[in-house]
C-alpha cells in the first residue's frame, strides 16, 4: 500500500469510528404513540401487556404486546366502548366499540365494529405481539375517537361471525386507552 492510500484510509477509519460511537450514543427513539392502554389482568387471570396507538395518515395502528396467555392459543382482542376496567371480570368496559352501528365481523372483510381486531396468537411462551391497522377510528378527536375507551383480551378466539361479539368468552385483561 502506498503512503497516499494509507493517509486516505486513516481519516476514513476515524470517521467510521466516530459515526459508530455517535450512533451508539443516540437514543433509539421511534415515533411516540398517541395513546397507550396498559392491560391489567381480570380476576383469576395473569394476562398483562401494553397496546400502543399510533396515528398513521388516515388510520390508526395498534401495536400490542401481551403475556400470560395459554401457550399456542388464540384470543379475541377488541376496543370496548367504556374506559372502565373496575369490575373484577372486566364487564364494566361494556361491549365492542361500535360508533358506526355495524354488525360484528372481521377487520378487512366486510362490515365490522370499529373496535374489532384480529385474534391475538400466543406463542409457545404464552406471549403475543400484533400490529393492526384500524380504519374508521381516530386518536384524540372526532366522532370515533378511541381515547377513553378500553382494550380487552378475551379467553377464547373470536369467531368473527357470532353476534354481537364473536363468542370470544370471558375477559382476561382490560386497559383504558389514555393519551401518552
TrEMBL record:
Residues 48-177 form the Superoxide dismutase copper/zinc binding domain. The keyword Metal-binding applies. It catalyses: 2 superoxide + 2 H(+) = H2O2 + O2. It is an enzyme of class 1 (oxidoreductase). Its EC number is 1.15.1.1. Keywords: Copper, Metal-binding, Oxidoreductase, Signal, Zinc. Residues 1-25 form the signal peptide. Its cofactor is Zn(2+); Cu cation. The keyword Metal-binding applies. Binds 1 zinc ion per subunit. Binds 1 copper ion per subunit. Belongs to the Cu-Zn superoxide dismutase family. Destroys radicals which are normally produced within the cells and which are toxic to biological systems. This is Superoxide dismutase [Cu-Zn].
Amino acid at each position: 500500500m502506498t503512503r497516499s492510500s494509507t493517509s486516505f484510509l486513516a481519516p476514513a477509519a476515524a470517521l467510521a469510528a466516530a459515526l459508530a460511537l455517535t450512533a451508539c450514543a443516540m437514543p433509539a427513539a421511534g415515533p411516540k404513540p398517541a395513546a397507550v392502554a396498559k392491560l391489567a389482568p381480570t380476576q383469576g387471570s395473569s394476562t398483562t401487556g401494553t397496546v400502543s396507538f399510533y396515528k398513521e395518515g388516515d388510520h390508526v395502528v395498534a401495536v400490542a404486546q401481551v403475556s400470560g396467555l395459554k401457550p399456542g392459543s388464540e384470543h379475541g382482542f377488541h376496543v370496548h366502548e367504556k374506559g372502565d376496567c373496575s369490575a373484577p371480570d372486566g364487564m364494566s368496559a361494556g361491549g365492542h366499540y361500535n360508533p358506526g352501528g355495524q354488525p360484528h365481523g372481521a377487520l378487512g372483510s366486510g362490515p365490522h365494529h370499529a373496535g374489532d381486531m384480529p385474534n391475538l396468537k400466543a406463542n409457545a411462551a404464552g406471549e403475543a405481539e400484533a400490529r393492526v391497522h384500524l380504519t374508521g377510528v381516530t386518536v384524540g378527536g372526532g366522532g370515533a375517537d378511541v381515547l377513553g375507551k378500553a382494550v380487552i383480551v378475551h379467553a377464547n378466539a373470536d369467531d368473527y361471525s357470532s353476534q354481537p361479539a364473536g363468542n370470544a368468552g370471558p375477559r382476561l385483561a382490560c386497559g383504558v386507552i389514555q393519551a401518552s
